[in-house]
Prior knowledge:
40% of the residues lie in helices and 25% in strands.
Amino acid sequence: MLVTLDHTNHTYTDSRGRLYKSVSSLLSEYKHPFEPHKITRENRTLVENYAQKNGGTTEDWLERWEKNKQFACDRGHAFHSLKELLIANSPFVKFHDEFLPVRNINYVWNIIGEGNFRNLPPGVYTEVCCWDSLSRIAGTMDLLIIYPDKTFRIKDYKTNTEFQTESYNNRPMKYPFTNYPDCHIGHYTAQLSLYAWLLIQFGYKLLDLEVLHYRIPAEDAGLIMELGILPSDLEETSYNVAYCSSEIDTVISQRVDYLRNLNNRNTQ
C-alpha cells in the first residue's frame, strides 16, 4: 500500500482512499497556539514584551508578523526545493565523512514494489513520505540516510528568521511533551522523533536526528525565491535532538484510541 501527498492542500491519502493525519498537524495539538490577533491576556502580554524588547508598538509587530508569515512560508518552500534539487542531481553525497549514493524513492519502488519500506537500499533519500497504517499518520522527511546495517539518520531543514531554544516564561509543551519547551527546539524534537518512530516500525535502527537551521539574509531571499540560486555561504547551525520515545508512544496510543472510538461511533 502506498501513501501519497497532495501538495496543493497538503493532505495524505493511501491507495484505498483513506485520509492520513500529517505529522505537523498532529503535533500542533501539543503546542500552545500563538495567534497574535486573538488578543487574549497572555498573547497581549507576549506581544507587548516583545515590542518593548525590540522596539516599536504592539500594533506594529502584529502588522509585521501578518505580512511576514506568508513570505517566510514561500521562502522556506523555495529553499527546500533547491536543497532537494541540489542533492537529487548528484550521484553521490558526502555525509559524516562518507560518500553515499543518492536514491530516488519512486525509482526504487518501481524495482522493489510500491511502499516497500522494509527493503530500501542504502543511500540518501530526499522528500521521503513515510506512514503508519494503524494510526493513520504520515509525514515527509527532508533528508533520510539509510546505511547497509539498516541504521538511519534524519536531517530536517529550517529557515525560521529566529530559531528559539527557550520558550516564553519557560512554558512547556502540552502532555506528554511536558519535558520540552514550547518553542522551535521542542516542536522539532517531537517532529523528528515521530518521523523516526515511523521508520522504526519498518525495522530500521536510529542513529541520530538533526535539525539544520539556515539563516537567510534579506538580500539572499530574492536569489532563492526569484532566481532559484542557493547561496553557498548561508549560515548553518546544527541542532542534534533526542529521540523522545516514551512521549511518541503516548501520542501514538492516543491517536489509535481516537480512531477506534471514532470507528465505534460510526458503526453504532
